[in-house]
TrEMBL record:
Residue ranges crossing the lipid bilayer per the database entry: none
Protein name per UniProt: Diguanylate cyclase DosC
Any one GO MF annotation of this record: heme binding
Keywords: Heme, Iron, Magnesium, Metal-binding, Nucleotide-binding, Transferase
Enzyme Commission (EC) number: 2.7.7.65
SMART domains, A to Z: GGDEF
Organism: Dickeya dadantii (strain 3937)
Length: 460
């Protein structure tokens, strides 16, 4: 089955291959033979330029460039310029992986385009200095290098765009949900508005109100809310389309009857039945979407009442930006309940759920209101301590570890159980990709479990 993404990939691969084929072997050889010193100088000039940009400096720092990015950019440039001898499908996949990372970090596309422009400009200057070579050959090498860098950037963008849109949707949903004090209140308000429209419509038809005074569902209080706010609040495009189609179906049914057939009692009765049936479907779908919103989209895990992982990217990006601008570190910790599977196997899922809820509550109560506690998945939790250093975090989590080790959790009428946790800690190191920090905390957690559990390990 072909998707839009696979069609884009096929087109890009075909055009990339055509670009390779149209370029002479001598031009390919010239670009492949650029020495390491020349390419590393290009990379150095590129990062010097980007570090001077205020916008770019939010995502880059000199230590990060020296330790990681210089080497990554060198190998990227070498592979793209030498793509005639590379596997183009593998090369395309690598560009899209870079695009996913850019989306995760939130790097604006205009910044990527600016960097590509600078890189091409410096490459053209480098090739122009090779005056001993044939001018036509230099021209071919310039054309190929320009187009192949554009192709690589386009490949990044095909992966970047969906990821960026998804991140923006989650960010907007998080913002909207933070505005609503109580999703349940909004649910009842909109269900009430829908019912009010239906009751008013039935009354208006029954009393013979002129057709021009009949308010269509789309123009009602509920309809305006749905088209301007509701569509952005809910997830699930299929249900949204169905709901939108039902609203339009109601209005089309009304238009079909008014003003020509409204005097016919049988037609008017059938209209009321049809509208009632369609509005019932709208009500049913709206209820299910609000139920899902309350259960998941309000950002809370239904079992532990902690934040779920959906908003980790939104919150991590925000805290990373704050940490970089303020220079104040933060801590990420991964926490795992030791031998949790045995609890479920020996005492059942009810005891397992009680254990999860009890530990989640203790963790949440042990940190500040400014910190974040997530249920990361299964028996694992993630904690973000803002403006905190490693030494402080170690004391906080050791206190939590001891508190949990002293808990008594009822398992049966006669017996209770004790539980312990393992903790991995990592301090933010100015890398803009939050997944790197999660991996470090996860590695530290793995080390804590490997070293005997019921302990804390610090990454590095």
């Amino acid at each position: 089955m072909h998707t839009e993404q696979s069609d884009n990939n096929e087109l890009l691969l075909a055009e990339w291959q055509e670009l390779v084929n149209l370029t002479s072997s001598d031009a390919h050889e010239l670009l492949r033979d650029l020495c390491e010193e020349e390419l590393r100088q290009l990379v150095s000039v590129f990062y010097d330029y980007m570090l001077q940009d205020k916008k770019a400096s939010l995502y880059l720092n000199t230590q990060q460039v020296a330790n990681q990015l210089n080497e990554s950019m060198y190998h990227w440039l070498r592979s793209v310029l030498g793509s005639a001898t590379e596997s183009l499908s593998a090369l395309l996949e690598r560009q899209q992986q870079v695009g996913v990372i850019h989306a995760r970090i939130g790097i604006p596309t205009d910044l990527v385009a600016r960097g590509a422009r600078k890189l091409k400009n410096e490459l053209f200057r480098l090739l122009d200095r090779k005056r001993n070579l044939d001018a036509a050959l230099i021209n071919q090498a310039v054309c190929f290098s320009s187009l192949v860098i554009d192709t690589a950037i386009e490949a990044m963008t095909t992966a970047y765009s969906p990821g960026y849109k998804s991140a923006m949707r989650d960010q907007e949903r998080y913002r909207i949900l933070s505005i609503y004090d109580d999703v349940n209140v909004e649910r009842e308000r909109q269900l009430g508005a829908l019912m009010n429209w239906e009751n008013q419509f039935i009354y208006n038809v029954a009393t013979g109100l002129p057709s021009e005074e009949i308010v269509l569902l789309e123009k009602s209080e509920f309809g305006l809310w749905f088209f301007h706010k509701g569509r952005h609040l809910f997830n699930g495009p299929d249900l949204l389309k169905k709901l939108e189609a039902l609203i339009r179906q109601v209005d089309n049914r009304v238009r079909e009857t008014f003003p020509h057939h409204v005097e016919n009692t049988a037609i008017r009765t059938q209209l009321l039945r049809d509208v009632r049936q369609l509005v019932g479907q709208v009500n049913s779908i709206l209820c299910s979407m609000f139920d899902e919103l309350i259960k998941f989209e309000n950002g809370k895990d239904p079992l532990t009442n902690l934040l779920n992982r959906r908003f980790i990217p939104t919150i991590m990006r925000r805290e990373i930006a704050l940490a970089i601008s303020s220079g104040k570190p933060f801590i990420l910790a991964m926490i795992d309940i030791d031998h949790f599977k045995k609890i479920n196997d020996n005492y059942g899922h009810e005891t397992g759920n009680l254990t999860l809820k009890t530990i989640a509550t203790k963790i949440y109560e042990s940190v500040r209101s400014s910190d974040y506690v997530f249920r990361y998945g299964g028996e694992e939790f993630m904690v973000l301590l803002v403006e905190t250093q490693t030494s402080q975090a170690a004391m906080i989590f050791d206190s939590i570890r001891q508190l949990i080790a002293g808990l008594y959790i009822p398992a049966t009428a006669e017996k209770g159980i004790s539980v312990t946790i393992s903790v991995g800690i990592a301090e933010f190191d100015n890398h803009p990709d939050y997944q790197q920090l999660i991996k470090k905390a996860d590695n530290a957690l793995y080390q804590a479990k490997a070293n005997g559990r019921n302990r804390i390990e610090i990454f590095g």
